[in-house]
Amino acid sequence: MRIAIDCLGGDKSPEANILGTLEALRQFPDLSVVFFGDEAVIRQSLTGADCPLSRIEIVHAPLALSGEDRPVDAVRLKKDSSMIRAIRALREDEGISALVSSGATGPLVGASILRIGRIEGVRRPAFCPILPTMNGGLVGICDSGANVECTAEELRQFAVMGSAYLSEVYGVDAPRAALLNVGTESEKGDRLRREAYALLSAQKDLHFVGNMESRDLLSGRYDLVVCDGFSGNVLVKSTEGACLEMLKKLKKDISSSIINKIGALFLYRMFMKEKEFMNYQNYGGSVLLGLEKVIVKGHGSSNARAFSKCVEQAYRMVDKRLNEKIAAGLRSAADAPQG
After folding, report:
1. Mean pLDDT, to the nearest integer, of 237-245?
2. Partners of 215 in the beta sheet?
3. pLDDT, tens digit, for every residue of 195-219?
4. Is the pLDDT of residue 244 over 90?
5. Which residues are CB-neighbours of 52 under 8 A, at least 6 positions away?
6. CA–CA distance from 101 to each of 44, 61, 217 (Å)?
7. pLDDT class of 337 with cuts at 50, 70, 90
8. Over the stretch 305-334, which tens digit does the pLDDT of each residue have?
9. Left if phi > 0, otherwise alpha if psi is -120 to 50, otherwise beta: which for 220?
10. pLDDT tens-digit readout, 160-177
11. How many CA atoms lie within 13 A of 72 on its CB side?
């Protein structure tokens, strides 16, 4: 299996991207990669690497895209950037199965949709990041930012794609899908949410469990949250922000007195365990579901461990033939009653 790696664009690129990829190469013996970035920098980073260089190709593309680059402009005017070169290779080279990037979201999504193409039947691709839950499980959020405005039918497709992803890649049996709403009652929400509720309820091959309020995201009662990209993005960032601020407050309170510091020594292992539990770097990136080839978008501040998780996500999506399962699920959904 070959995966394209965009080495530029992240806060800690290219070092984090390269080191993270090397970790994934050690984990998966049948994996090979194509690095896109500054060739001299990449070769220097590979010096002394504990990994067969025969499994690594390098394409010199030293230009990085930023969040200020418009997708259309990036495709037309910055063809030699690492991201656009990687997307072009993903489209043209049948041997490359996936792309991993921690670069700017806008250009990545726009260029991928323009150049890669969608799975047959998909109206709009959607992001689906993963967060940990309080019972030790995981919850996916689909969509989390690719589509600010959606129709009820698109939300139903997000549910189908997200459920297939959780089932195939994470082994979740019959993922419990919920619709993000302002209340749990079936009649709650605006017209979009009510229409989507009816469609999801009628989808027999989905395990739809009703509406979910945002406060229950990490409760462990749901495996997949279905929402438009605007609401999903706010939900994810609010949750991440709240967790980070709580950790900061805890650290400040511990430092506020000698007694608290002494007590913290006895609870040190527990604190470290909880810190790791809430560290988004341990859960990979957002996968862009619905395209003909696999794309994983890492967080802009991804370290080597986080980027390695992103490469692992891409590997498992290709290995499990996820796109074929999504296509089959959408065909089944199209034949289902419309509610």
Report:
1. 89
2. none
3. 999 999 999 889 999 999 999 999 9
4. no
5. none
6. 20, 14, 26
7. low
8. 999 999 999 999 999 999 999 999 998 766
9. left
10. 999 999 999 999 999 999
11. 0
Residue in the structure block whose two tokens are 């007694």: 259
Give a three-class secondary structure readout of the chain.
CEEEEECCCCCCCCHHHHHHHHHHHHHCCCCEEEEEECHHHHHHHCCCCCCCHHHEEEEECCECCCCCCCHHHHHHHCCCEHHHHHHHHHHHCCCEEEEEECCCHHHHHHHHHHHCCECCCCCCCEEECEEECCCCCEEEEECCCCCCCCCHHHHHHHHHHHHHHHHHHHCCCCCEEEEECCCCCCCCCCHHHHHHHHHHHHCCCCEEEEEECHHHCCCCCCCEEECCHHHHHHHHHHHHHHHHHHHHHHHHHHCCCHHHHHHHHHCHHHHHHHHHHCCHHHHCCEEEECECCEEEECCCCCCHHHHHHHHHHHHHHHHCCHHHHHHHHHHHHHCCCCC
Contact indicator for 27, 309 with CB cutoff of 8 Å? no
Contact predicate 204/336, CB 8 Å: yes
In one letter, which amino acid is 232? Answer: G
Residue type for position 3: I
Q: Dmax over Cα atoms in the chain, in whole Å? A: 66
Q: What is the pLDDT of residue 339?
A: 47
Lowest-pLDDT choice from 5-14, 43-52, 283-292, 295-304: 43-52
C-alpha to C-alpha distance for 72 and 76, rounded to whole angstroms: 6
d(CA 7, CA 284): 16
Backbone angles phi, psi at 99, to 5 degrees: -135, 135
Both tokens of 283, joined, read 């859960």
